């Protein structure tokens, strides 16, 4: 089971986003967790991209989910960086905001991701050739938006030397990149719930099928039967009536863990990252 050992210690860092305000780069808040298990420097590093609720719990500390995955990644010898895209922009959450009204969109989050990758690549203890993205929900969509070569900004970032070895998206919304067409910058794994009524699996399956690898490995997708949005959580499934988006707008969405999907997705995640980062 994915339980938190909470052994990791964070260092708060400032990261310059590729996004700007009044001609100046927006400074993001990052939480840096170097791995003590890294055999030697430089080591791989993973950027953790939060969902629409942000990276924190109700008390303002990093969420249990984030701490769980940080422990898992650090134990593998990989550094971890949690990126906060909301607080520097005066937002606490996006979940209750309709998609078309949000001030923090995939454009801002993609530029934040590039800033994080740039920051990691400059560190002496990080191998710039072994960087990965890991995101959940809105952060999973950010993984897609940051690794799709059909976006001009992704092409431009690659031209600046920003490299990506692997990308993993837990229950992302895939409609936007399905419509645009998906050409992967790096090997991609999508992990979706078969009963997800917030970000359905079907568009992600269609994205994988229609993707244009262009010399890259075909994206992979795992769909866990009967699993809802947030299936890797420990909390039970509940209805969130305050979410205006979803498969049936206005009807709310179901969110919560499923033990079988939680265990399977952890193994699928680790197998994929071990293949590409080690």
Automatic annotation (TrEMBL):
- Origin superkingdom: Bacteria
What keywords were assigned to this record? Hydrolase
Q: Where is the Dienelactone hydrolase domain?
A: 39-276
Q: Does the keyword Ion transport apply?
A: no
Q: Which GO terms describe its molecular function?
A: hydrolase activity
Q: Name one Pfam family in it.
A: DLH
Q: Hydrolase as a keyword?
A: yes
* Ranges in a coiled coil: none
Q: Please give the InterPro entries that the UniProt record associates with this protein.
A: AB_hydrolase_fold, Dienelactn_hydro, FrsA_esterase
Q: What is this protein called?
A: Dienelactone hydrolase family protein
From the broadest rank down, the organism's phylogenetic lineage runs:
Bacteria, Pseudomonadati, Pseudomonadota, Betaproteobacteria, Burkholderiales
